[in-house]
Amino acid sequence: MTVSVGVTGATGRMGGEVLAAAADRDDLSVAFAVSRSPGASVEGVAVADAADFADLLASHAPDVVVDFTGPASCIEYASACAAAGVAFVTGTTGLSEGGFDALREAASEVPVLYASNFSRGIAALRRAVREAVPALDGYDIELTETHHNAKRDAPSGTALTLLDDIDEARSSVRQTRSDDIDDVRGASPRVHGREGEAPRTEGEVGVHARRAGDIAGEHEILLAGNHESLSLTHRAGSRGVFAAGALDAAAWLADRDAGWYDFTEVLE
Ligand SMILES: NC(=O)C1=CN([C@@H]2O[C@H](COP(=O)(O)OP(=O)(O)OC[C@H]3O[C@@H](n4cnc5c(N)ncnc54)[C@H](OP(=O)(O)O)[C@@H]3O)[C@@H](O)[C@H]2O)C=CC1
Ligand SMILES: O=C(O)C1=N[C@H](C(=O)O)C[C@H](O)C1
Predict the structure, then answer these.
(1) pTM to 2 decimals?
(2) What is the ipTM of this complex?
(3) Does any ligand 1 atom lie closer than 6 A to the CB of residue 16?
(4) Which residue minimizes the CA distance to atom 11 of ligand 2?
């Protein structure tokens, strides 16, 4: 069966990558592509007006929509998909808590899969973090992410996911070692950059966002103790890895029931 895909943000960096990756696959076909700047052709696909999105869902009935846009449009596209009964894959970052609530609401009607990063390397990095953090409990942790100079949100969505992974790993190891679980619950304080008199406090996680050139995406987690340190680094060489992962997710999601899904389920 060929899965038909609608693509949003078609004139954006990721939209173009998704259309290029889709053209190379036999298991997927592009039903339509939209942008707020319609009229162009991207990877041979005519780009329609984003204002016609609901009509295009009705007329083309895609199996799934793949979205890499902005937080506000992501929510609008998700609720239109929920109303039309179309599955929704999104990698849009910078969503607020309310934005995630709106996506989860859409997931009560249709399958929704959100991932802050669609690369297999980051999925492996997350597993490595969940192993390294408990093994090196008490070590200082600093997270540094580096992206191209046009990225809007900071820290990156992937950095936020990794910070949550660190919190979860820390709290699970401390719960197994302590009877007083009130003592060990809660997020590690996150310190974004340092300036002036800013000594490190125990347990904090330093977070650093760099923006430069055309770097597709780099994430480093440094765990440092006395006389040793471990650095876990992922570098995306091109946005193609994100597009490939998002299309794998779309093919996987197309015939699922309504609900909230994670990229790790696609990779199982
Ligand atoms: N999860 C992952 O693996 C990855 C996630 N991302 C995320 O994907 C998102 C897009 O990144 P990128 O492609 O670099 O960004 P770009 O700015 O290059 O493209 C964004 C596209 O979305 C469209 N768009 C933005 N806001 C709206 C809106 N309000 N309504 C309709 N269309 C809108 C833009 O349309 P127009 O051109 O008409 O203005 C543009 O085509 C970001 O959140 C980024 O962090 C990026 C890479 C990987
Ligand atoms: O905006 C980008 O480019 C990227 N955004 C995602 C994020 O915020 O983590 C994923 C990737 O790092 C590229």
Answers:
(1) 0.96
(2) 0.97
(3) no
(4) 217
